[in-house]
Amino acid sequence: MKKIGILHGMENTFPQAFVERVNSKGEKDIVAEAVSIDQVVQAKPTDYAVIIDRISQDVPFYRAYLKNAALCGTAVINNPFWWSADEKFFNNCLAEQIGVPVPKTVLLPSHERPTDTGETSFRNLAFPLAWEAMFEYVGFPAYMKPHAGGGWKSVYQVNDPQDLWNKHGETGQLVMMLQEEIKFEDYFRCYCIGQKDVRIMPYEPRNPHHLRYAAEMKATGPAAEKLLATIHDYVLRLNLALGYDFNTVEFAVRDGIPIAIDFCNPAPDADVYSVGHDNFEWVVETAANMAIERAKKQQPGKNNLTWGTFVRDAAFGNPNAEQTPEVPAPAQKPKAAKPTVVGKEPKAAPPVPVSKVPKAAKVPQEPISAVAGTPIPEVPPAPKKAPAKAPKKK
Ligand SMILES: Nc1ncnc2c1ncn2[C@@H]1O[C@H](COP(=O)(O)OP(=O)(O)O)[C@@H](O)[C@H]1O
Ligand SMILES: [Mg+2]
User: Fold this and answer.
1) Domain with 62 in it
2) Which of 48, 110, 156, 249 has its CA 20 to 30 A from that of 293?
């Protein structure tokens, strides 16, 4: 018997429908249920051949549980190791490399210093940063949003440098991206499941939450066909490169060109009350089939994770990659140099006390907030009326 588990939080429609759907298919020796955890012991396998993860982005305990489960043979969807490493700025960089258009984007240091850092932690940051060059590249109006985030939290529309300083001042320790605003004629959200099944959903982000999927595509005729084919291709390219089995990709379409806005959603909204009945039916059915397929392929005790081409090529397909030496078999006694006895370390140069940092390094005296607040020449006057902030909730 192979078990498929779903790990979820507050969701009330998708997980229940998913479990019911898998079980209704009557597959021999396959059952689905909500994951149940009563203890987590290192290197001890779970009962699950497959786990669909819908919540570990918010629960670090679950993320660690899933890594342990994956090591012991569970096919965890999405790969918890890759998910932990991934973020939106990297996604944009990779998109450029694989030929998927994305808005021009730069990364900003956080407004507040990360906890336990001081001025000397930032000696590698130029002061001031090349703000003018960044503004010229991105342009205004722009979007500013966390480089690792979701759920429309801390997403801002910014109109000019002063507006940017003001809003950046609200973002605490978040690392933000400043991004070209795409003025779009069409907008789409696309599910991608198992790196092969794609559902393209017209989406209107300016509608109230419950009406966002009640949108219709503006493009028509051959232009629409071409657009949908391009989107389909881009969705697959992104998910094959990133290695997600369950994800959504958002596109803003400008002058007929789909530009990828947000494609790091490994626990995408799948609630019937937001995506609507038809999309819900598709996502439940497709996810159920994908999970069954993965359960059948899962080999107990082996690594059953999906890795994208970015990691796979870096690890196996790259002649320049560092070759990892073989790990010696446990019984072999390594013929290594004599182990160092604690307390008898070879004499090394004495460590430099933190208070005596070398003088050569130029230490910026201002906190990051002051860096971000550096006045820029020729700042256009602030608009009289405060610009509307993008809605915070999905
Ligand atoms: N560069 C952009 N141009 C136009 N609209 C954007 C841009 N970036 C974000 N948005 C709008 O803000 C919304 C939330 O941003 P998004 O990147 O999707 O963040 P989240 O991961 O929090 O959903 C998008 O659905 C879109 O409507
Ligand atoms: Mg989004």
Assistant:
1) 2-80+298-306
2) 249
